[in-house]
Predict the 3D structure of the following.
Amino acid sequence: MNETSPIPIRIYSEFTKRDWPELPEAAQDTLASFLIDLQKDPENTEVIAHAQRDAAGQLGFEFFPGFTVYWQIVRNEHDPFGQPARIEVLALRKMGIEFSETEKRTSPEDESSTPEPLDSIDRVYSRNGRLGNLAMWGTLHVSRRTRRVKGWIVDSWSRGGPPYLNPKMHWVSFPDYKFHHMSLNIDFRSTIEIGPEDQDIDPVRLVFVHGTLKQWEQDWLEEESKKAS
Amino acid sequence: MKDASPVKGFLRAADIGRSRSSILNQIQWTMAILIAGIVALQFVRAANWLTILFAALLSVHSVLFLIAFIYFMLKRPHSLRSETFDYKISELNLKREGDIDIKTSEFIQKRAGAIQAGLFEDVLDPSTLKRSSKPEDRKGPGKR
């Protein structure tokens, strides 16, 4: 095999039947070209430099506005430091999360009235943070419809000592900072369903998340103002 | 009092054997033991053949160390750093703006598992995707 031989691509089972047809044609063309380029040079420094990554070494790239592809480079078991054996395409995602609130739908009056149009939320900022044994990550989201800040998706937990908090995800609405139960489903079309307010939240978790989010919002605003100036 | 010495600092920086650090740690340790052995042999005035044997072993290890170092330097440089360094880099990577968030990371790792379990298709030429994957009854984008 010479150096320019394209590397095989392995795609997840729902790719061709379910997700690919959902892409706009221009996005399909762009993705096909992107994969061809990746096949030729899977470690293209330009792509790697602009890709998102996670701790496991999987990569993500917004190949078309609003659409991201995730992949990993697999090497031969017998030669783990050698040339890539194949590229595995792990997911396609439409950015933006479809947003729904269960509480609003449950009241009987709502059934007769015109249903509120579905909104999507876009991630604009993300952070990880620790304070002693407490840790959390959060992503700030704005409404796609109004472009106003809608709230935070927050996961918080403790590690290595007291206070002992199990990992728990909340939707923290903006600007009232109410903690809601939530269910987040990540897929080609991601959805988030906001449940009722969490009344039993541990006070330590509450104070920690609250304080951290306020600080992060300040940082976000500062960063945004720097970008604007 | 000032912190003890540059020697302490050097030892800390060298970090030999304090943790499972660089991939070459075992070879480094063997070399250190062989050098100590050669020095000890001089003190006890051991037979020359024993010193020669230790010196030969040390030479073999030095060559092996050099080869391995150059190999990892070219192929996998981060293996030459300590695990702590790797961990810190991963942590920093996690904190980079715009990185894959934890929920998405969990999702794509599940997908990687599904592929490993045999739920995949192989694509030899991505340019065929457009022709082969659009069923006739395809709905437009945004409709499912």
Summary: Chain A is about 30% helix and 40% strand. The CA atoms of residues 122 and 222 of chain A lie 19 Å apart. The longest strand of chain A covers residues 119-131. Residues 9-94 of chain A form a domain with the YaeB-like fold fold (CATH 3.30.2310).
